[in-house]
Amino acid sequence: MHTTVLILLLLAALAPMGVRVIGKSAGLIIATVSLAITGWYASRFGIVTAGAPILETMSWVPSLGVGVEFLLDGLSLTFALLICGIGGLVLLYTSSYLGDSPGLGRFYATLLTFMASMLGLVLANNLIVMFIFWELTSITSFLLIGFDFHRESARRCAWQALVVTGLGGLCLLAGIILLAIASGGSTGPEFAIRELDPGAILDSPLAGASVILTLIGCFSKSAIVPFHFWLPNAMEAPSPVSALLHSATMVKAGVYLIARLEPTLNEQRFWSDSLVAFGATTMLLGAALATRHVAFKKLLAYSTVSSLGILVMLIGLGAYAAAATYLIAHALFKACLFLVAGTATHIAGTKDTEAIGHLGRSMKISRWSALLGGLSLAGVAPFIGFAGKELTIKSGLNAGGLEAILLAIAIGLAAALTVFASIQVAFKPFFMPGPHKPEHAQEATWPEWLGPIILATLGLVLGLAPFLGMVPLVESFGASLAGAPLADDVTLGLGYLLWPPSIPLGISVLAVVIGIGLFMGRSPYRSLLAKTFAWDRFGPERTYDRLVGTTLASAQVLTNALQNGSLRSYTRIIVLTATACVALATLRIDAVASYLPSFGALTPFDVMLALTIAASAVSATMIRSRLGAIAALSGIGFAIAVYFVLHGAPDLAGTQFAVETLIVIIFVLVTHRLPRFARYTTNLSRSIDIVIALGLGSVVTTLTLLAMGSTVASPVSDFQAAEAVPSAYGRNVINVILVDYRAIDTLGEVFVLAVAAIGVFTLLTIRPSREAEATR
Amino acid sequence: MLIALPVLIPMLGAALCLLFWGRSRPQAVLALASTASMLAASVWILFGVRDGTILTLNFGGWQAPFGITFVADLFGAIMVTLGAIVGLAVMAFSVGASDRLRASSGHYPLSLTLLAAVSGAFLTGDLFNLYVWFELMLLSSFVLLTLGGERGQLEGAIKYVTLNLLSSMLFLMAIGLIYGTVGTLNMADLARRIDDLQDPKLATLLATLLLVSFGIKAGAFPFFFWLPASYHTPPPAVSALFSGLLTKVGVYAIIRVLSLIFDQEWSLLGDVVLVVAGLTMVTGVLGAIVQNDMRRILSFHIVSQIGYMLMGLGIAIGLVGSLGASSPIAVLAMSGAVFYIFHHIIVKANLFLISGAVLITTGSTNLKEVNGLAKSHPFLSMLFLISSMSLAGIPILSGFWAKFVLVRGGLEAGSYTIVLVSLAVSLLTLYSMTKIWTQVFWGEPDDLKSPPLDRRTKAWVYSPIAGMCVLTICIGIGAESSARLALDAAEQLLDSSRYIDAVFDGASAQIGDAP
Amino acid sequence: MNIILAFCCGLLAATGTYMLLRRSFVKLVIGLALLSHAANLLIYIVASPLLGRPPLVRAGETQPPAPFADPLPGALILTAIVISFGVVAFTIVLIKRTYEEIGTDDLDQMTSTDRDLC
Amino acid sequence: MNSVIFQVAARVLLPVMLLLSVVFLLRGHNEPGGGFIGGLVAASGYILYALAVNLPESRRLLHVHPRTLISTGLLIAILSGVPALLVDQPFMKGKWIEVTIAGFEGVKFGTPFVFDVGVYLVVLGVTLLMAFTLEERYQ
């Protein structure tokens, strides 16, 4: 199984080159490989459906508990077959559909990466590995939706889909980690899905949060209300993408994960109820919204939303066999319809189903794909879609009590609306008149019609003869969800479903009748629906837009306020924060006073020096002339130098004198043509600054006093002084420290000097104008 | 001797470059040779410390704490290696992308002194020596920032210089106070002696000033203003060097002093760090999403990602502080910080290099002026896509693992708020990375104003970018070795006794001298 | 007895900060220089509160005559002074060049690099 | 500053200050002084000369570009740490030899002194590079 994923990735890497070398027929090879992989999975059918899941393990990041463990059971086998099988047909379709596009290589590469990720997602038995593939499908979906990136709407919709599924992805990440922590207890998180411990999770306080976060993740990916809006927008993608990602596989990732976690989480309080509630709502809303549209893919997309709702609801109801049947049925007919819709749009030159008429006269093969697929979508016997719908209604009724009645009504209504939609999309443009009749239209080439007809026929064959693999697959799928073999036999045979007549059959028939009725009266119905558009501004898409808008606006306000361009405001904030932090830390110390030094004897020299420093410092801030300020500044320097002389540091004093002199010279040299000090600031802001400055000053004084008060037993300098002559052969201890004990400091220091000199040199010699000349 | 090489080699290279002032070719050769050998030396060090030994070097043969000691533990060795990688990439990029005047006068030697200073800061075991390296780093960056003297550069530089010097002054004062209180500057010695203070709150007070100063250098909230004001103004190679290394030195210093020296009140400091981390993340990313220039967006993102690094640190020391013992969860969270740093250095520097490639290809990095590069430059687009997705934490790239370890550590530690914030920030990061993608790379291609690059330039510009992309993919796929490395480094960091023992153990000094 | 100088340190830090907060950016350099004076003085008075003789060993002896001033802060400050010389020299020229380039010394008019909002 | 006296003084002062700077450098290890002060004193000799006479003349007297001085000084400072490595000791470990200079017996000459010479040259170069550039630009 690892190999199949790797083959697809390898193929993805080679695809762009392949297309360049052998042209569009590269698609045929790629499709063949994909179908061969389908064949490999099909060959495992017997083993898996016999109840023996296949497990392949490979170590990856053991220190973080992440191993690439692939599990092939009924659930993952079903998905794997759909991904590779439909994937193969879609790749085939693409070789003709996008054959002339310059981005064909890029398209294949992305699509194959998607297939590999999707396959990895459903096979992975490790939550983190599953998540990794999950995110990769989001990214590839983003790239595919934006495939025609020169269109603004494609870019916007791709971005929206990524942000929505990205949000879900992050919630999911937190959710599954919490799940693993809850399951692992004190032994550390447990990331292997099969090892998750339902009991431990049930007992953990983290369970609630983890379930909610996981569900948000799954719902956003599977376009469940309130995240459904991104999916119809994703129809900006080319039709093959819509067929594969946005109906048959990727959007089912959420459903897949819910199914995968069902055996672990079905005891959780909100789990099943939320699945049913959100699923049913989505089912109804999706079906209703589908009837508002006449564009091929928009309509199909909303219908997909509805189907995803059904799947989520079925898992919540515990109707695993129904979920399996419906999932397979939906993948077949929806992929088929999307592909046909793509061809039809190409040929007719418009995507408006209402406008197109009698397209079937030219599309002599595709019309049959559309018809068969549409019937399956409408849930008409003997198609597999019929079995799916019957089981769905039955499961709704099994819920019992009021819930059963509500569900039955909702499902029936959704079924009726779906019948309407399927007539609109699969029958009307092909077999009924319309204002737009394309002249000289011809059937598409064989790669384009072959896939849909296979899928449509498969829907019919499996409906007629479910024993041809369908039943064992559904049983095995169900067993994966139940965690044990299903108690009841799976009944998909037409005989069982049609006879004896039952309530589900009745609802089903009623739904078809209502659906046809609605279609006949579609113009008054549509004008009725038009009124509901007003409600859209309360809908989730607008909410999303508002959310993004608000975030951007507040970010703008905040950034304007903080990063406002004024260095003074930055300095103020930093100084104030520093002062506050240090002051708080000082106040925490008990008995600060005990650390303060005693006020020793003062020599007149000290007092004089201190006064000189203080007076110069204050005057440096007040003097209006630049030279005066510099003089005051150097006054401080010289006073400090005198202090060094008096207090045992002649070296220091010499350096200080020299440096101070140099600074004054440079200052005078450089600044003599600068403007006079101007008074820019108001008295108020000056006062504020004085307060801020004094705050920092008092903090510095306090710290200095504190440090002076603490005596150090034996500073390292004791050793340095003692060993200066014996070991370092130098009698000037300060110099010995500089060139020997701490020579590496001095090395750094001379480099600083060198860099400063180079800085002065380059600042003065390299000018923008000269630079511009130099680049010419 | 070995562990001084990452400092001495670039220093030597810089000194030699000065001899060739005005001639870009020999300088470029020297710079490439220096960074390449620097990388070799750092990798050698990394292999030396891989098994958990800590290498030390006492300069001048003076036993610690009397001279200056260099210490290479895992964390330090990782950082030095990353510095060398970024250095090499930037030098190679400079060969292709620098204008002749800058390349011949100062760009190479100053980049080398910057690299030497960064390595010195990562390796030194002495507080004042750290100050010296900080200053060398700052001054080199000042000059690099202003090299060329364009108006934007100068304006940005004034803000950068002022705020960073303010930070240096606070640092210097803190050093004075610490020496006055504790009587030593060697960090291992400090760690031992500071426990003798009568009141642990006094140690925290000393830490506060130090942390504020490092916080400014790291670009943490509310000190980051200098960064978005200046990082986008110099030539792209310089931006890349800065973005990869400068703020990380600040973060390194915070991690080093907190984990080694100031462990008296870890639970309190952990909380403080977490609050700062959260605010840094949020303000940074909010700044990023409203920008319209690639390099400005990336600059603000640096700030936001500093928050992630602090998050790991905060969780870890908070946990150890409150639980008392070094727990595996704390090690995990700390390793998240380490992992995040090394992922970030590579990816962020690379994104700046890519923005540089965009700049020299199209003449602009403004989202409104550059469009449709995916059509005209598919290879560059792919490289950007990989790097930006890595930054946004998308699997299977390095950024995902960094994020995963942090989130997992945070959830296991029960720090739900910061995890929530970090995930929200991560979404906004994805948002702004795709904003760049959809506007610069997607869309209708413009007519390019600049002439197409010649083959030689292309090779020099693209190869470092591609190399770093491969690196982020490799870290992602081979996550085990990186994760192991980060975990071991984190364990070493949280157990300060190993560092202290290594510094004061004569035997290990021998190892350092003769590897 | 050096306690009075602790207040000088504080005052230097305060005046330095105040100068950083002026709009005229020539004052910025003076502010930075004041701050570095504050830091240097602080290191010295904190570490050697005693009036001492220079840490010089007389010829023929092996120890400096006690009491001698702590030599380490001296060495640190020496390094710090030299570094701050380099920094201040660079900053002065930077200020000058900036003035030449933008034609004003008003800090509040230098906002072009910070923002680019949509 | 064009007075003849000043010019003559500068011509005399330059060698005196150079000599003085060397003295500072040499005695630095034992008495107040050292490479930094020495370098500054030497530099002020040249600066004075440049102010009093003229810049090109001062540059000519220096014989090398200040940048070369910086570079040489940095290299000397780094390489002074190398001898210790040759005998398998830590970088920058002081190596001393006793030499007899001009009749003074047992004068110790060691790598830390070489290091100080490096510092001297760097400081000289740095100061002159700054000063010459500034004078060129703003005088």
Number of strands of chain A: 4
Measure the end-to-end span of chain B.
8 Å
> What does the average pLDDT of chain B come to?
91
* Helix fraction bin of chain A: over 70%
**Main β-sheet, spatial strand arrangement of chain A:** 1-4
Termini separation of chain A: 58 Å
User: Can you summarize the main beta sheet of chain A?
Assistant: 2 strands, antiparallel
Number of distinct beta strands of chain B? 2
Output the radius of gyration of chain A. Answer: 38 Å
Mean pLDDT of chain A: 90
Helix/strand/pairing class of chain B, anyone? mainly alpha
Bin the strand percentage of chain A: under 5%
What structural class results from the helix and strand content of chain A?
A: mainly alpha
Spans where pLDDT lies below 50 across 5 or more residues of chain A = 770-776
Global geometry of chain B:
globular
Largest interface, C-beta closer than 8 angstroms, per-chain residues: A-B, 105 and 116 residues
List low-confidence stretches of chain B.
Answer: 507-515
Q: Any descriptors?
A:
heterotetramer; A: 776 residues; mainly alpha; two-stranded antiparallel sheet; 4 strands; 1% strand; elongated; D: mainly alpha; two-stranded antiparallel ribbon; 6 helices; 9% strand
